[in-house]
Amino acid sequence: MDPASPTVTVATIPLRDRAAGPLTRQRYRRLAAVYAGAAVLGWMLWTAAPSAWRAFGLGLLMPGAGFAAGFTSLSGIAASAAAWLLTIALFGLGFFAWFGSGNVVAPVAVWLLSALAAAIAVPDVPWTGAPWLVMAILGLAGGLAVRAARRTTAQAMRHRARRNVALRERALQLRPAGRFEPAPLNRDALPLLRHVLDRALQPVDRYDGINWVDQFQFGALRYALCGMGYALAGVHYGATPAFTGYLSEAQRRLHLKMLDHRNWKYWVWENAWGNLALDPNPIHHRDNVMYHGWYMAMLAEYISNTGDTRYQDEPLVLRHPSGREWRYRFSEICEVLHRSHRKSAFTLFPCEPNWIYPMCNNFSAIALKVHDRLYGTRWFADIESDYRRRFDDEFCTLDGRVLAIRSTHTGLTLPMLTSAMADSVTAHFQHGTFPDIARRSWEIARMDYIRVLDGRIEIEARGWDRLDTGSYRPSMITTYTQIGAAAAEMGDLEVAALLRERVREEFDWRPENDGAVSLDGVSTQAHATTLYHWTARPNQRRSMHADGIPDAERAGPVLAEAPYPDVLVCYARNDGSALALELAPGCSAAVGRTATLGLDQLRPGQRYRIGDAQVCVADAGGRARFDLRIEAAPQRLLVAPAP
């Protein structure tokens, strides 16, 4: 569908001389200043205050350190050491709550309350060696951290030099993949399509068969719904751009499910403990890209594929159980996203308060890029250069890997979340907005973490690579399918095919609902990623986001009605006047039945030949219907104007 072959370029890794970018270093300095102030205050309290306050002051140096003042006897050492270790454990849980839900209060509260508890529990005469023990621990930890950082930086610079040479060579080898053209769905994908459609097409207030674990992280319901939406949009663009019917209806029901309070009720809590604010409205002007960024990308893909104007004509309504309502049109929410990017010092803005995920910001960028193309705005264009600069400076390692997360308050990140899966999913969904950066991410993952030898594929997995992110169960399903989809998008069809084989071999495929399939123990979210792994093709998402369906084709004849699940539409594309179709039975019970199908956007009064045997006449509204006997094998039909 591209008017011309897409340019294939590869960004090299920037030659930054420090591990952290300028904004991150600024946050480090601020964090160091705050800690230094607390440490000085703590030392002053230790040296000049009454005994209880001395223990409190010591507790400001590190979580639980105040209990060291109780090391005055064997029993005191045992009790105080236990209290110190318990504090460290609770602080770890507080940090996890901060990371997982933006609860900035939790780790601070544990730290300060442990200092207060030590002040209450220590004896009147504290152990005089306590501050020296604490300082020794801090010195040792700091020394080890500095040593590890230097070693990591040196290693990263070596990797950067090697990778940049390889990236430049790769850039010379790559050639345009050619114009993207829709193609029929493979028969293997149809049972997976049924699985997703069965869940998406149920009534809007029903969630049968859709699993979600929590409200705050990737096991949340919103990610399962958005994942299904992205998968169906990919099917629409890649195989059936001239079909609306149940495929469009399924996506619209997912859109409406996103308005359900169950999808955004978490925000009142995250806003309270992360921003110290009580506004429950999830369309937030500085945070929460994990809701409206993901949501608007889903709408953007749908609107681009269909031309449907309902989300511009009528507002989306968020109804709170208290009776409060918030109404937004698609463009109004995209404007909020644009303002949020502009307000953020990092340009990318947070999911949970304080935590920025580049992966989530990809979806906001998609929404703005598509909005610019559809409605003539310049919202993505306005932030594009700053986004690129901040992404490279603040969210990439020295050796070119994508950091999964960064704290806006402290600059801290979680290195264990940098992984082959994270690199790949970033590349997949960044391909339409920053194709050269996406290509860099993919090529680095491919050269160093994905290996093919003698027809077998091996992935260097770490951290969350080994989790089904929709359920948190140990599983490689998310990694196989996200890497596989990225490989197909980037044109590495060998890796995509080998990972499909892995999924076939390592997971139990169980028939359900006469024609659908379910992977045993696999989350709804992972079923969605499996579908877009099975249906992804080179440059599919890049073309969807950057080019969309040509106006002539979007205005041409469409198949607007097909009975589900009896008929699965494997291919539907028009050239502006004639419509080519490939139809398959969606269930064994449908074979031998006669189905009635509906056409739309025909020329009023025009006769159309349907295959070799039927003729219909378009009514005044450009609609017509015809009957089709469902065969066991896929059927190809051409609907074309007849003399």
Description:
This protein has 643 residues and is an alpha+beta fold. Helix 13 (330-343) packs across helix 15 (379-394), helix 14 (358-375) packs antiparallel against helix 15 (379-394) and helix 14 packs parallel to helix 16 (420-430). Strand 15 (607-610) and strand 16 form a beta hairpin. It contains 22 helices and 18 strands. The strands form seven sheets. Strands 12-13-18-15-16 form a five-stranded antiparallel beta sheet, with no helix packed on it. Strands 11-14-17 form a three-stranded antiparallel beta sheet, with no helix packed on it. A two-stranded antiparallel sheet has the order 1-2. The longest helix is centred in the first third of the chain and has 44 residues, at 130-173.
Produce a short descriptive summary:
The protein is α+β, with helices and mostly antiparallel strands. The chain has helices spanning 22-48, 51-59, 74-101, 105-121, 130-173, 190-200, 221-238, 245-257, 261-264, 267-275, 289-306, 310-313, 330-343, 358-375, 379-394, 420-430, 435-448, 477-489, 493-506, 524-535, 540-546, 551-554, and strands at residues 316-319, 325-328, 355-356, 406-407, 450-453, 456-459, 467-468, 473-474, 509-512, 516-519, 558-561, 567-574, 579-585, 594-600, 607-610, 614-617, 624-629, 635-641.
